[in-house]
Write a structure and sequence with these properties.
The structure holds two protein chains of two kinds. By secondary structure, chain A is an alpha/beta fold. Chain A has helices at about 75-85, 105-115, 140-145, 160-170, 195-200, 205-225, 235-245, 285-295, 310-315, 330-340, 345-360, and strands at about 1-10, 15-25, 30-35, 45-50, 55, 60-65, 90-95, 120-125, 150, 175-180, 190, 205, 230, 250-255, 300, 375-385, 405-415, 420, 425-429. The mean pLDDT of chain A is about 95. Chain B is about 40% helix and about 15% strand. The chains are: A alpha/beta, B alpha/beta.
Chain lengths: ~425, ~300
């Protein structure tokens, strides 16, 4: 089957591509790029995307799909549907499942669950067995089964000694250790420590809990020569630490989540657990620092930390409600609204952070928009205005603080693995 | 007749001066009722009040219960501790089940800050906060203010210092908001580990020296050091706390013989107050307890009879 996409602006900073053209896709492969006359081709499904942006399929390197173990919140398939709806053709899923992704069997199980889906699913293996922090998980075996990075996300790697060994060991396969940066002994609060936590009387997590573990990761990466990736960076000081480390040539990368460059801890004043996540929402100075870090390249990636929870849990008392919000279906719209339309980032920078860099961090191939390549594409209307409706989410969960928010910019379609998602439906192509 | 600007009492944050004044003045009337041989009035007859206590509390609950009975309301008690989720039924389900029995007012105590506010979203009853986490405990602050006013005749311009574990205290925050609204100058005193983050930005002076705090203030509101809870990691020992922050007769004599010492109780003798000071101030402290009933009657009355 053939699909013709008309009138696109093709944009891929990774290949220095920015031009207006049509794309013809045959059996999932890009057959032709240029001005294509429909009358020459038989049996073709044509889409008019006049003036819309076509970029290498977006990739979210930090999602929680809850399978195996908590399928009532999300499954590999429902999470992948959510990813496609949000404009993503690939995700890396975190290992805090039950059982954890600490054996080749679980890696293979997850890959198998997502096998027929449009969205590529790349498991992140656990650093330690059962994420318990007591001994290394079989990292080589996990890697061979398909894991692309390692993390004990949910918590930091328990001890400095274990992180050191993980960084040394993972050098053999050039895979990053993805750190949830939070000092355990300073953790345990429900929100950021600030004047707001003082006013609300909620137990708090200081930014220094994050900064310490960021610094530990940087120093150990420098010492071992391993690669450290800072997940969901949220504090101003941590951004500065990563910036300085990069200047020193240390192998460190970082990602930020949309809520951390959009919302502050002031939002918690209504005590809505949909504003509770870890790391917590910080202060305006931190939000500003993250945007600055995204601008100057200190922060390489934007990732959602998509963390589904069911309603009963999020309706619990604030201090008992679990951390996390979903983000796959709002991430692109928020990024475009908050960073592109405000002229804080260029569209090229956004494509780098939402598509190219996350794949580079995980040593995955960046899809190229060229004849003969597999079509792995996201088509974006940067000007489309819409309102977030949590009821329309493809995710199995609705725990998002962004319901009702007006956004500008949305994915119209994603194409990958011989499938196309458009107008809310999957089609074989 | 004047009435309160809100139909709930969730805290004293941003509660207007007129409201605080009205509660204190109304409490004065009820305080007189409490001295009569027949201490009951029919004001809330036919109203049903639920005391929803998710955290252990004897004194506050008894005080509320007595206030409710003095006003002739029908009362129910629901006591449960810990997370609702651990017991299978969510907080929301519990509340909505009880509310289906037609409750007019809910008095709530909970370990999680924000629960009273959440209740206003899921219930039609008037909500009164009887202490939420480390957030607020408005009726305690109101009775403290009432007792201070009773003793000194004013609140405006008065210098009040709250002493102890400010960071883990819901009483401190409500006192700060309420006293500031009434024009008092509020400060806190305690070891620096017990002073919450950026508190000074609320316009509160911070002392780490009890002698200085005593010399410069008219009133000390001394909080109980929660030995069983969080004090452990914040101070090296109770002995050191008492030596550096405990109120003793020597300190009173040396720094400010006229200072008014208050304590919300129960007292840890030999910790925040020496035994002698505790004995010397016991009349004031017990009077605070009586005033507590009057304050709660005033709040219940004003909210319970407020026309929508």
């Amino acid at each position: 089957m053939q699909v013709l996409l008309k009138g696109l602006r093709l944009l891929n900073p990774d290949q220095g591509l920015d031009k207006k053209a049509d794309i013809l896709i045959s059996n999932g492969i890009i057959e032709k790029i240029g001005s294509i006359d429909t009358s020459e081709i038989k049996d073709v499904k044509e889409y008019n995307f006049e003036g819309k942006l076509c970029v290498p399929g977006l990739y979210d390197m930090h999602v929680h799909f809850r399978e195996p173990g908590q399928e009532d919140k999300e499954t590999v398939v429902s999470g992948s549907n959510s990813a496609a709806a949000g404009g993503f053709t690939g995700v890396a899923c975190m290992p805090n499942t039950n059982p954890a992704i600490d054996s080749a069997e679980v890696v293979k199980f997850i890959i198998d669950r997502g096998r027929d889906h449009l969205v590529d699913i790349d498991p992140i293996g656990a650093v330690s067995k059962g994420r318990k922090g007591e001994g290394l998980a079989p990292m080589l075996e996990l890697y061979d089964a398909g894991a692309v990075g390692f993390s004990d996300d949910g918590t930091a790697v328990k001890t400095s000694a274990l992180l050191r060994r993980a960084l040394e060991y993972s050098k053999m396969i050039d895979a990053p250790i993805i750190e949830h940066c939070e000092d355990e002994s300073l953790a345990g609060g429900s929100m950021n420590e600030s004047i707001v936590s003082t006013q609300l009387g909620l137990p708090s997590i200081p930014t220094v809990a994050e900064d310490l573990i960021v610094m530990r990761g940087i120093l150990l990466a420098e010492y071992t020569g391993g690669k450290i990736h800072v997940a969901h960076i949220s504090s101003k000081r941590s951004v500065e630490l990563v910036r300085d480390a990069k200047k020193r040539g240390i192998e460190v990368t970082a990602e930020a989540a949309p809520h951390h460059f959009t919302l502050t801890d002031e939002c918690i004043k209504a005590f809505d657990p949909n504003y509770k996540m870890n790391p917590p929402l910080r202060e305006q100075k931190d939000v500003d620092a993250i945007i600055e870090g995204l601008q100057d390249g200190t922060i390489d990636c934007i990732a959602s930390d998509h963390a589904p929870h069911n309603i009963e849990e999020k309706e619990m008392e604030f201090i008992y409600a679990p951390n996390g919000i979903i983000g796959l279906e709002t991430q692109l719209g928020i990024t475009l609204s908050e960073l592109y339309h405000t002229k804080k980032l260029t569209i090229e920078q956004i494509v780098e952070k939402l598509s190219i860099n996350p794949r580079k961090v995980l040593n995955l191939e960046v899809p190229q928009i060229a004849v003969g390549e597999t079509a792995n594409l996201t088509i974006i209307d940067t000007e489309k205005e819409w309102e977030v409706d949590i009821k329309s989410f493809k995710s199995r969960s609705i725990n998002s603080p962004f319901g009702g928010r007006k956004l500008k910019g949305k994915s119209l379609s994603v194409i990958n693995s011989l499938q196309m998602f458009v107008d809310g439906e999957f089609h074989s192509i | 007749m004047s009435s309160l600007s809100s139909r709930h009492l969730l805290g004293l944050y941003e509660v207007p001066k007129e409201d605080v004044q009205l509660i204190l003045d109304t409490a004065k009337t009820f305080r007189e009722v409490l001295e009569r041989p027949i201490k009951k009035v029919p004001t809330l007859q036919g109203k049903t009040i639920l005391n929803l206590f998710y955290e252990n509390s004897t004194r506050t609950r008894l005080s509320f219960e007595l206030a409710e009975k003095r006003l002739s309301a029908d009362t129910m008690n629901f006591t449960k501790s810990g997370s609702s989720a651990s017991k299978g039924e969510s907080f929301k389900d519990t509340v909505q089940n009880i509310e289906a029995m037609k409750v007019d007012m809910i008095i709530v105590r909970h370990e999680s800050a924000g629960i009273p506010k959440y209740l206003t979203q899921i219930s039609d009853a008037n909500i009164i906060n009887a202490g939420d986490g480390r957030h607020e405990h408005p009726t305690q602050a109101l009775l403290d203010m009432y007792s201070i006013r009773e003793k000194t005749g004013k609140l405006e311009g008065l210098k009040v210092c709250i002493v102890g574990d400010i960071g883990h205290s819901r009483v401190a925050l409500s006192n700060i908001y309420g006293l500031q609204t009434m024009g008092a100058e509020v400060s806190v005193c305690g070891p620096s580990t017990m002073i919450p983050w950026q508190l000074e930005s609320l316009g509160v002076k911070i002392y780490n020296n009890i002698d200085k705090a005593m010399a410069e203030n008219d009133v000390l509101n001394v909080l109980r050091i929660q030995l069983e809870r969080d004090a452990g990691e914040l101070i090296p020992s109770v002995r050191e706390y008492h030596n550096y922050f405990g109120i003793t007769t020597e300190r009173i004599a040396k720094n400010n013989p006229d200072i008014l010492i208050m304590h919300p109780g129960p007292i840890n003798r030999g910790v925040e107050l020496s035994s002698e000071v505790a004995d010397g101030t016991s009349q004031i402290i017990l009077n605070q307890v009586t005033n507590g009933v009057a304050i709660r009657m005033a709040v219940l009355y004003l909210l319970g009879t407020k026309t929508e």
